[in-house]
TrEMBL record:
Transmembrane segments: none annotated. This is Molybdopterin converting factor small subunit. Coiled coil: none annotated. Gene3D superfamilies: 3.10.20.30. InterPro entries: Beta-grasp_dom_sf, Mopterin_synth/thiamin_S_b, ThiS/MoaD-like. CDD domains: Ubl_MoaD_like. It comes from the Bacteria.
Length: 84
């Protein structure tokens, strides 16, 4: 199973209480399930409002089960940002 880094930003970072952490998952859905298991509180609620980048590419409306992860890849967890 690919090893990936999940990076948290803004409210997600505050809820996770870490900036990034490693996971093993072959899809975005698998990685997010592991995140929810590790952080069952506030981060689970924050994730419902987030968008995601996988290796710099926006996931958009694609089903998370269809988004494959690669060894050494990165998942960016981006809550809505004010302003900008």
């Amino acid at each position: 199973m690919p090893k990936v880094t999940v990076r948290y930003w803004a409210a997600a970072k505050a809820a996770a209480q870490v900036a990034e952490e490693p996971y093993e998952a072959d899809t975005l859905a698998g990685a997010l399930a592991a995140v929810r298991e590790r952080h069952p509180g506030e981060l689970t609620r924050v994730l419902q409002r987030c968008s995601f980048l996988v290796d710099g590419d926006p996931v958009g409306t694609r089903a998370h089960e269809t988004v494959r992860l690669a060894e050494g890849g990165t998942v960016e967890v981006l809550p809505p940002f004010a302003g900008g």
